[in-house]
């Protein structure tokens, strides 16, 4: 089988989340709701019909990400039984940070940008901020598990993605904070367009950084399987 173990979970997450971004973007552009050149991700899910597609698919993405993170937590716990390369409390903390990011994604999907901008922005900040912290902590844990459970090549890839995401996250927040209006139909040359453009580029960079990071989980998940045991007690 091409997807042994539970590798299908991160693979489905990567495919579904990529489709969520791309489908919403295509619908929004074809409907004329956003300019095709680097809109915010949230801009592509603000007006119907793309808002329904965006909300549904991002909520499923948050669920798949939560499942992936939990399986990753179990995998590290199992590996740690023989190797003792990380504290269990650190592994649990990393999981909690990741689940917090998934909660932020749910908020972003539920509260549209123009309908409830303050709640939407808080959700986006939690999603991206927690996501960056999560992948950074996972990169550090990966290095600690070398060379038995990970190759240094994979660790370098994960850390590179984490560093790029961290670097992009900071200007994303800085440029977004300088925008004085909330709108989705941006055109070049108008006030704050440069801030919007730079912030949007950083946002897409961080989002696809998450996708590529979870892509590196597939090989790890191939050698890990979950078994549900049932016990019948006779009286």
TrEMBL record:
The chain crosses the membrane at residues 7-31, 51-71, 92-110, 122-141, 153-175, 195-218. The keyword Transmembrane applies. It is found in: Endomembrane system. The keyword Transmembrane applies. Pfam families: Frag1. InterPro entries: CWH43_N, DRAM/TMEM150_Autophagy_Mod. GO terms for cellular component: endomembrane system; lysosome. GO terms for biological process: regulation of autophagy. Keywords: Membrane, Transmembrane, Transmembrane helix. It comes from the Eukaryota. It is a multi-pass membrane protein. Residues 7-223 form the CWH43-like N-terminal domain. Belongs to the DRAM/TMEM150 family. This is DRAM1 protein. It comes from Setophaga kirtlandii (Kirtland's warbler).
């Amino acid at each position: 089988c091409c997807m042994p173990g539970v590798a299908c979970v991160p693979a489905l997450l990567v495919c579904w989340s990529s489709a969520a971004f791309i489908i919403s973007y295509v619908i929004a552009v074809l409907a004329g709701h956003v300019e095709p050149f680097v809109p915010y991700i949230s801009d592509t899910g603000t007006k119907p019909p793309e808002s329904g597609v965006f909300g549904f698919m991002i909520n499923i993405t948050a669920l798949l990400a939560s499942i992936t993170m939990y399986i990753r937590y179990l995998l590290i716990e199992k590996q740690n039984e023989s190797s003792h390369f990380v504290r269990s409390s650190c592994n649990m903390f990393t999981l909690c940070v990741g689940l917090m990011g998934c909660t932020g994604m749910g908020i972003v999907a539920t509260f549209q940008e123009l309908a409830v901008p303050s709640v939407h922005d808080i959700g986006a900040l939690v999603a991206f901020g927690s996501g960056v912290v999560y992948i950074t902590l996972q990169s550090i844990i990966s290095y600690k598990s070398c060379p038995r459970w990970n190759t240094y090549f994979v660790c370098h890839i994960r850390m590179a993605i984490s560093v790029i995401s961290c670097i992009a996250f900071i200007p994303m927040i800085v440029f977004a904070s300088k925008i004085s209006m909330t709108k989705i139909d941006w055109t070049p040359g108008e006030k704050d367009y440069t801030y919007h453009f730079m912030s949007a580029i950083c946002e897409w960079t961080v989002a696809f950084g998450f996708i590529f990071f979870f892509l590196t989980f597939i090989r790890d998940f191939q050698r890990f399987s979950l078994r549900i045991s049932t016990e019948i007690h006779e009286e």
